[in-house]
Amino acid sequence: MPNYSEKPTIIFDMDGTLLDLAYDDFIWNELLPIRYAEQHQCSLEQSKQTLFSFYQQHNHTLKWYSSRFWTSQVGVDVLAMQIEQKAKVAKREGCIELLTYLKENGYPIWLATNADYAGLQFKLEETGLRDFFDVIVSSETLGHAKEFIEFWQILASKHPFDAKNCYFIDDTEKVLNGAKLFGIEQLYSIQQPSSAKAPRETCNYPMLSALTDLIPILEAQTTEQAEEQKKYA
């Protein structure tokens, strides 16, 4: 008889999924250009152009997510700058409600982020979210960004999970594509990763408006599995 009692693993991204991406947008698109212009004695417009070129060059690579790399690249202590502004780190609406529901109902809860290890640690400390998770992984420690199937292969080798019985929620479509290539089928995006920007209108994956929208989806699956279980009783 099939075993339908095992809860699916729920894997979350961090920035733009559980946390408001407005903080990161502020750091990289507003504050760093100011600090770079001050450091290199150039205009703010020149600073923005230079940084944009850097961003385009390294987007979706491990370097993109590395505080150490950006510090060496731009001559500004990026991690210190992030910690300096840590009061702006905010949980997205429904974050605690969803994580509490999952914890109370016995779901394995994982955090898989492209944030480097140092950035991950300070955000976990600032938000108090650490204790919700059974597994916490930074792509820096696996050697591949989540956009690539290698991340998922190494993750599964270190922390085995059933891709067919798993939900993954992330605000970045390329990351979801990587998870899909690995074999995760239940994939969800976020309609409004940043409170400072308008909600998205389109996406190639179903979008959660509120994080708690995941609860009825999981409850529907539980009901469906219970009905399936009856067939084998």
TrEMBL record:
CDD domains: HAD_like. It comes from the Bacteria. One of its GO terms (molecular function) is phosphoglycolate phosphatase activity. One of its GO terms (biological process) is DNA repair. GO terms for cellular component: cytosol. NCBIfam families: HAD-SF-IA-v3 (TIGR01509). PANTHER family: GMP_IMP NUCLEOTIDASE YRFG, PHOSPHOGLYCOLATE PHOSPHATASE. This is Haloacid dehalogenase. It comes from Acinetobacter amyesii.
